[in-house]
């Protein structure tokens, strides 16, 4: 049987770091999407206040297999 993979794009953030932001993207997407197979980080961004990074964000493409 052939497999169909769909891709959605999400934005997620974290105060801890880029890897935590990526994990948040997968965690939140998994609440409404099943069979997640991969995550591709398209862009990364850090927000700065008073010369300090205060939050990290990723724009992620999440691939999942359709049932």
Sequence stretches where pLDDT stays below 50 over 5 or more residues: none
What distance lies between the first and last C-alpha atoms, to the nearest angstrom? 11 Å
CATH superfamily, please?
Answer: Flavin-binding protein dodecin
Radius of gyration of CA atoms, rounded to a whole number: 14 Å
Main sheet: strands, sense, barrel: 3 strands, antiparallel
CATH topology: Dodecin subunit-like
So how many helices?
1
Number of strands: 3
Shape: elongated
Query: How much is the average pLDDT?
Result: 96
Q: Strand order across the biggest sheet?
A: 1-3-2
Q: Write down the secondary-structure element order.
A: EHEE
Q: What portion of residues belong to β-strands?
A: over 45%
CATH-derived architecture:
2-Layer Sandwich
**In CATH, what is the class?**
Alpha Beta
Number of domains: 1
Helix content: 10-25%
């Amino acid at each position: 049987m052939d497999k169909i993979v769909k891709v959605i794009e999400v934005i997620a953030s974290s105060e801890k770091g880029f890897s935590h932001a990526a994990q948040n993207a997968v965690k939140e997407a998994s609440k409404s999407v099943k069979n997640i197979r991969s995550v591709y980080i398209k862009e990364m961004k850090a927000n700065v206040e008073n010369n300090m990074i205060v939050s990290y964000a990723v724009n992620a493409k999440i691939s999942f297999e359709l049932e």
